[in-house]
Each structure stands twice: as C-alpha cells, then as structure tokens.
Design brief:
The structure is a single chain. The chain has 51 residues and is mainly alpha-helical. The chain has one domain. Helix content is 94%, strand content 0%. The radius of gyration is 20 Å and the shape is rod-shaped. The model has no long low-confidence stretch (mean pLDDT 76). Keywords: Membrane, Transmembrane, Transmembrane helix.
C-alpha cells in the first residue's frame, strides 16, 4: 500500500506542471538571490582590498 501511495503521489507530481514549476521557480529564486549576495560581498571585498 505504501509503495503504491508513493508511486501515485510521484505520478500526480509529474502530471501537475504548475506545482512542479512553482517549486522550481522558488528554488531558482532562492539560489539566484544567494548567488547575488555572495557576488556582492565578493565585489565589495575586492574594492576594499584595492583601496
């Protein structure tokens, strides 16, 4: 029963592109935000070292 339940939820998840897309959008948004913050800190650090 549990195995069937997992399979059905996975199937529903694959069939529902809206849920899939929203999850990926949130993940992409968080990762890009994190990347931008790291890049900003890196640039600021480089500027401070130069001066």
């Amino acid at each position: 029963f549990s195995l069937y339940n997992i399979a059905s939820t996975k199937y529903i998840y694959l069939l529902n592109p809206f849920v899939n897309n929203s999850f990926y959008q949130v993940y992409y948004l968080l990762s890009s935000c994190y990347y931008n913050v790291i890049r900003m800190i890196y640039i600021m650090y480089n500027n401070m070292v130069k001066e």
